[in-house]
Amino acid sequence: PRVEPNLTHNGLSGFFYACQNGHEEVVRVLLEDGRADPTLGDTLSPLMAATWGSHTGIMSLLLKDPRVHVD
Fold first, then answer.
1. How far apart are CA 68 and CA 37, in angstroms?
2. What average pLDDT score do residues 54-71 get?
C-alpha cells in the first residue's frame, strides 16, 4: 500500500509523529524514500519534537538531512 508521510492530522504529519515518539527506523525509511518533509510541522518541527523526547538517533538522522536547517 502507498503511504503518504506528509498527510496531516491536527496539523501534524505521520513523519512528525514518528519523530516525536522515537520510531527511528520509520524515520530512517521515510527520509531515505525522500517523500517525507523533515521541516513540516505546525508550531514545532520534527527536529524539535525529537529533541523534546530525547530521541538522539532521530535527531542525528534529521541533522544529516540537507533539507533540515538549524537556525
1. 9
2. 94
